Every structure is written in C-alpha cells, then in structure tokens.
Amino acid sequence: MTQTPPFEIIGQSRKGRWLVTCDHASNYVPDDIWPEGGEALGLPPADMSRHIAYDIGARGVALALAQHLDSPAILSTFSRLVIDPNRGVDDPTLVRKIYDGSIIPGNRHAGASEIARRIDGYYRPYHDAYERLAQQRDDTVILAVHSFTPQLKSRPRRPWQIGILSAHDKRLTDPLIKALEQAPTLVAEATKIGERLCIGDNEPYEGRFPGDSIDQHALRKGRLNVLIELRSDLIETPEAQSHWARLLAPILCDTLAKTGL
C-alpha cells in the first residue's frame, strides 16, 4: 500500500481559472518502493538531489504562482524515478533505469508487474486527481511548471533562462512568448545575472510526449494550456522561487486576458 498520498492539492476552493501543476515536485521515494533502508533506490544522496530525481525549485514556483493567480495547484509527492507522471504509460522512460549518466539500481529489475504496481499506486491516482481538478471549471487553463538543469553531462550548457513548451495548441503559448520577450522586468532580471535574456520556444525540450500530462489533460480535452520550464539554478532558493512567480504571474494574467479566450 502507498504510505503517502501520491499528490498534494493546495487551494482547491480558489476561484481562479488556472490549474497550476507540478509533475516533478518531489524527490521522495516511498518505503513500498524501496524498503531496504539506506540510500533511496540505491542512489547516493548527491544523485537524489539532482534533476534526475525531481525538478529543482519547481514546487516553490508552482505554489507561489497558484497563490498569485488565486488558483488551485496539484503537485506530485514522489520522485520521477519512482515513476514519471509526465510520460505516457507506454513510454520507455516511464520508469528509468539510467538517467543522465546515473544507473538507477532500484529500477534495474523493475519488470511489467512492478511497473503496473507503480502505475496503480502512484501514476493513476495522481492523474485522476489532476483531472478532477481540471473539471471543476469549464474554462480551466492548465499551467504546468517544470525546471531544467543548466547542463546535462557531456552536453553544452543550455543558454535559456526560461522555456515555453507547446505542441499543436499555440493559442496561449505564442502570445506568452511575445509578452515575455517584451517584458522589461525579465530583461532586467537577465541583466542582473549577467546574461542576455534567452527564451526557448519548445526548448530545451519538444513540447509534447504522447500521453504526457498536457496531452492527457489539455490537448485531448481542448483546454488552454502552457508549460513553463525555468532553469533550475535561477530558482534554487525560496526567495528566487517567489521572485520568479511575482514576475510571471501578471504576464500570464495579462496575456490570457488579451487573447480573449
């Protein structure tokens, strides 16, 4: 049995039309996944603190954005190494055995029955709760919050401070990218950290994995959506997370209002 609920809901009764989500909010590995004690999934603490285990800083940004937007938030409470809620159930990276150079010992022998157990105990309850929240309004706008590592092993450093991901639905993402490019506060923020402002359009990732969270809850349902990726070294502290939420919230609201959608 799952010892900890696989999701956390904050502000369910809030009146805003956004639903703020954070698929990779936690690096926690429950006892029913790794009951042997010692290092979680057989990984050293340094690996469990890396982006391979969760999206660094994303939880704090998501919570702060939900508060600014007066909207509910749903967050995972388990590591993406347990099972990745932002993948389809038939995706080969649903339960990773190696990630960015690290072998995951606790997943090495995870076969079909173990993956099915994790789907039933973690993945499906998270998505069921996600959909229930999305259905609270007919005009829900999904705002997915993620972070990305500044540099994968043996890869060039990523230049973007923020990425906006989309698939074929660009009703909100294209206007948002334009608004971000014109936002003086974001330009000033980039200057302060000694970098040019660099906004990724479907960078550092493609905007859609078949069966991922946006696919399941937005694209297939016709809901407005945007997925924001922030570079994790910019949101490592609570102060930085609050700061970026304060920057982004009015831009999101203004962009949505101007679309008339």
Mean pLDDT: 94
- Count of helical regions: 7
The CATH top-level class label = Alpha Beta
Main sheet summary: 7 strands, mixed
CATH topology: Aminopeptidase
Determine the CATH superfamily. Zn-dependent exopeptidases
Number of strands: 9
Order of helices and strands: EEHHEEEHEEHHEHEH
Coarse structural class = alpha/beta
| Approximate strand percentage | 15-25%
Structural Rg: 18 Å
Notes on the structure:
The chain is an alpha/beta fold and 261 residues long. It has one domain (7-259): Zn-dependent exopeptidases (Aminopeptidase, 3-Layer(aba) Sandwich), CATH 3.40.630. The protein has 7 helices and 9 strands; from the N terminus they run ββααβββαββααβαβα. The strands form 2 sheets. It has a 7-stranded mixed beta sheet, sandwiched between helices. A two-stranded antiparallel sheet has the order 4-5. The chain is globular, with a radius of gyration of 18 Å. The mean pLDDT is 94.
Write the layout of secondary structure elements.
Layout: E1 7-10, E2 18-22, H1 45-48, H2 58-68, E3 73-76, E4 98-99, E5 102-103, H3 112-134, E6 141-148, E7 162-165, H4 173-181, H5 184-192, E8 199-201, H6 213-217, E9 224-231, H7 238-259
Parallel strand pairs: 2-3, 2-6, 6-9, 7-8
Antiparallel strand pairs: 1-3, 4-5, 7-9
Helix pairs in contact: 2-7, 4-7
